[in-house]
Each structure stands twice: as C-alpha cells, then as structure tokens.
Amino acid sequence: MNLITCDENCKYQNEGYCQLNQNAAINGLKVNGCSYFIKRKPLKKNKKGADGN
Question: pLDDT 10s per residue in the chain (53 long)?
Fold first, then answer.
C-alpha cells in the first residue's frame, strides 16, 4: 500500500491520502503532479428536512 498525501478536491482523496488503488485512465489534467485527478462532485442536498418533512 502506498501512502501518497493529497489535499486536492479529488474523488480519490480521503482523509489527506490518495485512495486510488487500481489503474485508472490518465486524464491529461495534471494537478500538483497527479495525472489521475478527477474533481469531486458536490454532494446533493436533500430537499426534505432531517425529520423527513
């Protein structure tokens, strides 16, 4: 297991480390030297309240 630090808004980043554990397509967009960067999608907000109403 490799411990590659990462603080980017990338879908593979979790708790400050890259969690990419298999080969992925190189996207050509290099961010801080990483060719696998894919911007994380924003979380969808639930229209209902916490109580379901």
Answer: 568 888 889 888 999 998 888 877 777 667 777 888 888 888 777 766 555 55
Tokens 């924003």 belong to: 42
| Burial letters 18-41, b for 16+ CB under 10 A, else e | bebeeeeeeeeeeeeebebbbeee
Longest dimension (CA), the chain: 46
pTM: predicted TM-score of the whole model, two decimal places: 0.60
Residue with tokens 């630090």: 5
